[in-house]
Give the backbone structure.
Amino acid sequence: MKVVFFQRKPRPNKNFSLEILFEQIRAHLPESIKPVKEIAHYYSEGFFKRLYISLEFIFKQGDVNHVTGDITFVTYFLKKRKTVLTILDLGLMNHPNPILRKILQIFWVQIPVKRAGYITTISAATKTELLKFVNVDEKKVRVLYIPVADLMEYKPKVFNTEKPTILQIGTKENKNLIRLAEALNGVNCKLSIVGVLTLGQKEALSQNNIEYSNVVNISNEELKQQYEQTDLLAFVSTYEGFGMPIVEAQIVGRPVITSNLLSMPEVAGDAAHLIDPYNVEDIRKGVLEIISDETYRNMLVEKGRVNAERFSVETITAQYAEMYKQIFKS
């Protein structure tokens, strides 16, 4: 059975796309399934380039077609009964322009979902959100999580209660870095930030007297080192389709503070301190509790390691393989 994965052309400095994690699924599929990766020739921009991408993929279909990423429009031209569409998140529905938001809803969400035979989301929260925007049979939408990188492994570390290093993964607006900086004002810590900082974020870090380091465009091995060198992961995002850093930190053995909305509680299980990401004082209290309470901190670490087992490559790949076989047989 040939399963073709259709993916967008990756842009530079985008190391943390969830699409990368489908590499692991392909690597662990059983021998009876032959995975093929097809990457779009152009970036997803402009009408004619998107049309070219769609037409290009018509001639590269397999026994099962799996569309990932933001090129959902390619489902228009693929064989419906053979096509799986994975929805990573519905962040595009937060676009500030109502006209453009409606266009995105119709052409990037509603029509692609109607044109695909099978839909998967990477969290139950994303499935719930999807069903608000598309009138589709709920049974057509299946929740299949994504696996955590094999590279991550348990690496115990003595927690630095005097001056902990707090890790922040991502710098897009939804990553909530400015509120985190405000929450850490006066807390003796170092913030380790992965991602390109905006001028506004740099100003916020300076105004709140935050000691920080910043890296961009790092390798997976370097990302692993970031987790291993940190004491605490702060993932207080305002929007996530999944929240992979939560699980990665739990595998490495680091306590996690994350948001109490959307997919994050679902992914974290009972193994993270949940806060209101819009409330600076709530974020601050959560960080201070983890720093000051050793028993609570150790409990989060132990529960986190158990929770992370749900997202092992073997577990998730087996679920995808079973879906591909069902599609092929039908």
Observations:
- Residues 165-310 form a domain with the Rossmann fold fold (CATH 3.40.50.2000).
